[in-house]
Every structure is written in structure tokens, then in C-alpha cells.
Design a protein that fits this description.
It is a single chain. This protein is an alpha/beta fold. It has 2 domains: about 190 residues, 3-Layer(aba) Sandwich (Rossmann fold), CATH 3.40.50; about 160 residues, Rossmann fold, CATH 3.40.50. About 40% of the residues lie in helices and about 20% in strands. The protein is built from 14 helices and 14 strands. Strands 1, 2, 3, 4, 5, 6, 7 and 8 form an 8-stranded parallel beta sheet that branches. Strands 11-10-9-12-13-14 form a 6-stranded parallel beta sheet, with helices on both faces. β12, α11 and β13 form a beta-alpha-beta unit. α3 packs parallel to α4 and α8 crosses α12. The radius of gyration is 21 Å and the shape is globular. The relative contact order is 0.12. The C terminus is likely disordered.
Length: about 375
């Protein structure tokens, strides 16, 4: 069975979630990814068709991307898929057009910012393009998949038909994200608090800094920050003033896994606003799969990715004191109790949030939407 994966401009890495289920199912079904522009620096095992294949470091020209969407539509149609699976409700015109002309189902996974765009009235040419994509998606999608219950509820409130909507947690690759060997903490001489994500306001990196700085005098630890973004200069300034802070910059998937394994706790103070919220927070699942508890703000879909008091701690958004107190608890927890929580996190992800389980669930969605056409996907 042929399945066309479609999306807007994409970079792999870091955007593995667009292809991760196909990577797990490629021995059983034929997948191909179609994008107006792609930057791919790691082999993923499925064909990638891009109207503009970009080199590392090159910038995406959004107007040029829009100009090649007809070519993307033609490429999808030539593939002759049984299902077209679009990631994000934006950048979706080629997928919606190809599915309509081929007479095949369109499945659309909602990831977060696309749902917020449903109500946002952006001005100018870009706003008009976004609205056209959203109209095509809402009209042509056979089934929507939301990456959390929180996001599904938000999508319904913003006009998505609940009868066409299902919750499907994406999960993470639990064959890759695994605990390290006992005692293999590398160069760690103090407990490590890890932050992994964009150095941006809405990810709460400032709150992570403030909580760590306030805590360090009484509870020695290291704060390591993995990622890049517009607040990097500010973060590096804090690191110069406070030697326990280390700025790692962007990391490869394998290097990030080693940081998860070395960390005592992951801090994830993502902040919801009128414009954005963490719809899922896959980083929290990656850390737990590696045996690292998570301290996070109880915002957006994060409440569905961390089992409070079992695999981590959820604290009220913007409460930096509560964030610091929760970090203190995990840093100073007795090893025996900590080990039980580590095991609980690993089991939670493996049993309820794995990409392997999600891949099988995705096949059931494909089967259901194709059943009416007598084109079931075989196991």
C-alpha cells in the first residue's frame, strides 16, 4: 500500500516526527515524503521528494515555496497513493488538491500552531495564503489526528468537526531513547538539571535560569541548556555570571540522548499564551524514556505527557518558586525512591507513548478511512 506523507518546508533533523512512523512501517508499506522545500542531512530510509532541496544553513523563501506547490501536487499524484497524510493544517494545499483529484482520503495531523492559526487573522499576502491552506484542509480532510487531548479540545472549540477528529499521541522511538548503563554519568560531578529546547520566551528558558540560580546556593547542581534561539546571548550572559550554567547549543539526536541519560531531572517550563502552547512536548517523553524525571509547567498537552508525582512533577505556570522547589525535590531524593520513579517513567513511555504503538494505531486510522473504498491496508 502506498502512503504519501506531505508537509510544508521541513528539516530532518530535527523534524523526525513527520517520518518516524513511516520509518517503523517501511518494511510493510510504501511511503514517500513530499515537501515544497526540504533540508535533509540524515538518511531516514524513505524517498523524499522536494521541489527545492535546500543545503544546510540556507534560508527558506516562503514566496518561492508557494510558487512550486503545483509541482508538489503533481509529484503526489504521480505516486498514486491510497492515502495522503498531511502534517500540519497549514502548507496543505498540495496535499488537499492531490487527494481530491485522486479521490483518496486525506488524513491531517494537527500539531499545535496550525490550530492556533485557525482563529488568527494575519494580515497581508502571508495571512491570505495561510487562510487558503486552512480552508482547503478543513474542507478536504477525511480524518484529523490531534497529538493530545488538550489540542483536540482546542481544535473543536476553534471549529474543527469533532466527528472527524481523533486523538493520536505521536510517541517517541523507545528503541533509541533508552536508559544508560547504571553509573554511566560521564563527567558529572554534581546533579545535572537539563533544559532541552529552543532558547525562546515561550519555552520558558528564563524561568529555568531563574529557578536554577535561586536554587544553586542551597542545592548545588549544574544547569545544562541544549538548543539555540533568539535568547542565546542572554543565556550565555547568565552562564558567564553563574559558572554552574553550561550552554551546549544545538545537539544531534544521539548527543541529546546522552544528555538525557546524564541528567538527574529535565526542566520544561513551557508557557501557554493566546498565541501558542505546548501541544505535546515530545522532549518530555524522550527524557522519561531515558529514565529522567521531568519537572514542567502544567500547560497545554504537557499534562498528558508527565504523570504528576510518578514520572515527574507538574507545577502551576509562571510559578518559578514552585519550579525551583520541585527541582530541589528531585535533586535531593534518596536513590532508592528516585530509582522507582525512573522505572515508572520508562514504563509509562514504553507502554503508552511509544512511536511503535502509535505506528500500529496509525495503520488502523488508514484502514478505517480507506475501508469505504475497499482498499484496506494489510497487516
Amino acid at each position: 500500500m502506498k502512503i504519501a506523507l506531505t508537509c510544508g518546508p521541513v528539516a530532518i533533523p530535527p523534524t523526525y516526527f513527520v517520518v518516524q512512523h513511516a520509518m517503523l512501517l517501511r518494511d510493510r508499506h510504501e511511503f514517500a515524503l513530499f515537501s515544497p522545500s526540504a533540508r535533509v542531512t540524515e538518511e531516514v530510509g524513505i524517498p523524499i521528494h522536494s521541489a527545492m532541496m535546500l543545503r544546510p544553513g540556507s534560508r527558506i523563501d516562503t514566496l518561492r515555496v508557494q510558487a512550486v506547490r503545483g509541482r508538489v501536487t503533481r509529484d503526489i499524484r504521480r505516486f498514486e497513493p491510497a492515502v495522503v497524510h498531511q502534517h500540519f493544517a497549514t502548507w496543505s494545499l498540495p496535499a488537499a488538491s492531490a487527494a481530491r483529484r485522486l479521490g483518496v482520503p486525506l488524513v491531517t495531523t494537527l500539531h499545535g500552531y496550525d490550530v492556533f492559526a485557525l482563529k488568527r487573522q494575519s494580515a497581508g499576502v502571508w495571512g491570505a495564503i495561510t487562510r487558503a491552506n486552512l480552508r482547503a484542509t478543513t474542507a478536504g480532510t477525511t480524518r484529523f489526528l490531534a497529538v493530545s487531548r488538550w489540542l483536540a479540545d482546542r481544535a473543536i472549540a476553534d471549529g474543527i468537526d469533532s466527528r472527524r477528529l481523533r486523538v493520536m499521541y505521536q510517541g517517541i522511538d523507545t528503541s533509541f531513547f533508552t536508559p544508560g548503563k547504571p553509573g554511566a554519568e560521564g563527567d558529572v560531578d554534581e546533579p545535572v538539571v537539563l533544559y532541552a529546547g529552543g532558547l525562546v520566551e515561550h519555552k520558558g528558558v528564563r524561568d529555568a535560569l531563574w529557578a536554577s540560580i535561586s536554587l544553586h546556593a542551597t542545592t548545588p547542581h549544574r544547569l545544562r541548556l541544549a538548543g539555540g534561539g533568539p535568547l542565546e546571548a542572554e543565556v550565555r550572559c547568565a552562564a558567564r555570571e553563574h559558572p554552574h550554567i553550561e550552554v551546549l547549543g544545538p545537539l544531534s539526536r544521539a548527543a541529546l540522548r546522552e544528555q538525557y541519560r546524564a541528567a538527574r531531572v529535565l526542566v520544561m517550563p513551557s508557557r501557554s499564551s493566546a498565541e501558542w502552547s505546548e501541544a505535546a512536548g515530545l522532549v518530555s517523553l524522550e527524557a522519561q524514556a531515558c529514565g529522567t524525571p521531568v519537572v514542567a509547567y502544567a500547560s497545554g498537552g504537557l499534562t498528558e505527557m508527565v504523570e504528576d508525582s510518578a514520572t515527574g512533577t507538574l507545577v502551576p505556570q509562571d510559578d518559578v518558586d514552585a519550579l525551583a522547589l520541585a527541582l530541589h525535590r528531585w535533586i535531593t531524593m534518596a536513590d532508592l525512591e528516585y530509582g522507582h520513579h525512573r522505572s515508572a517513567g520508562v514504563e509509562f513511555v514504553r507502554s503508552r507513548r511509544s512511536a511503535q504503538g502509535a505506528a500500529e494505531e496509525l495503520l488502523s486510522h488508514y484502514n478505517e478511512v480507506t475501508a469505504a473504498r475497499g482498499n484496506l491496508i494489510a497487516d
